[in-house]
Amino acid sequence: MKLEKNMTNMFKKSLVALAIASASTGAMAADLATGTVTRNVSTEYLEVAPAGVLTSNNVVLELGAEYAVNDVITLTFTGGDALDIDSLPPFVTVAAAAPLKGITVGLISTSVGNGTTKANYRVTDITGGATDTTTDVVLDFGTLDFDSTKASGGINVAFSAVTNTGLNLDTGGGAARNEDLFAIDDQFQVEVSTDLDGVIDVEDERQTFVGAVTADQLVFEASETAVFDLAADVDGIDYSIAGNFSWVQDTDANTAGIQATAGTFTVTPTGAAVCTAPVVTATALSFSCDVLDEITVDIDTGPQGSDAVLPAGTFGVDANVQYSFVGGTDSDKDLDRVAAGAWTLNGSETFIPYMPYSRDNMSHISQIIYVTNSGSQSGEISVDVTAADGTVTNLSNADLGGIVAAPGVTKLTGEIQSAMIAKGLLTGGSSTKQFALNIVVNDANDVISVYSAYNVNGSDRGWVQNDSVVINRSKN
């Protein structure tokens, strides 16, 4: 009998241990993330909306353990001491509904400091049957209010709990134990889907792209970075395509600015945007639209005729968005420039940033400009001359007397100076004139290098560093 009694006690203890183990390894997964939905708020909204209250979605906590009276649940809010403590509910009660117990929690204390607010809720009542459980009970703390002027970094809520004896409780759940109440992000972005990518044909005097093509296309979209619950209203957006547009010919000298030939630039929105006609300068193509949209910019060099000499260079999209909010203020923001492709040459290009010249009736300054061709073929040479005021003059191969860069070393000094005199670039004005030269050779980048220097009064030689070694040797 004694042995039987001992066996019975051991069996009962085993059942108790199994029950405890089951309670410890069952659900045990507190979940704050599933029921609490983040509100997305833009930084631009916070900037222009009336200062005041940001109201969260409901803060919803699903319990993952068995709770008892006097256990304590803590909600920790981080993000700038922004919580309005008065918006916390004093009590949250859930009625019993088998197999779930009923539970009431009451707010007993709060603390604020160092960007953090803690709200402590004590379990004041548990109801329900003996076999019911608090695991999976859902506590809804409702919506909470936050000071919008302190919420620019976002607001997060996290959950923790301790038993009435001070032990950690309901420790499962991992990342689901916290959730962002407000996620703050920049509202606007520009993305390029089709780059400008023309390859300028040196053999065609840089008047077309390879294959006698005259058209290139850029496609980009201004949009919101996310679906925002609270966002600023768009009032308009200004675009500027940065690049070298010095090739565009002015068709009307009596009108301010550059009046491009019709058909050179076409701006087409995909959606409902209404856009202004593009305005071109030597360094940018600009236009404005009333709303965000996908934009196609078609560039056709053909209408410019044979006078247009296309330069190599990169492009980028700049944008300035204007926005506001009813009852608030208005503002604007420059978005980061987005790369929009490049026009390249099927030849060599070397930039000499500085080269002085004497006036055409003087001779105190002379130039030393040589092209070295380490290849086996000859390539025609042309030169772009940029004056101190930014005016660009193209010296075609014909202007340079048909000179070519033959294998070996070719001197360009006299041909360039004669062509500049013929174009009137050295006539009148000061005795010394400054220019930048862009030497273009119809040959592979990696076989061409340029030496550039000048003499003053026949003795003072000034070497001028150009980019032929840096650029030409590394392009291919």
UniProtKB/TrEMBL annotation:
It comes from the Bacteria. Keywords: Signal. Residues 1-29 form the signal peptide. Pfam families: Slr4. InterPro entries: Slr4. This is Uncharacterized protein. It comes from Pseudidiomarina aestuarii. The lineage of its organism: Bacteria, Pseudomonadati, Pseudomonadota, Gammaproteobacteria, Alteromonadales.
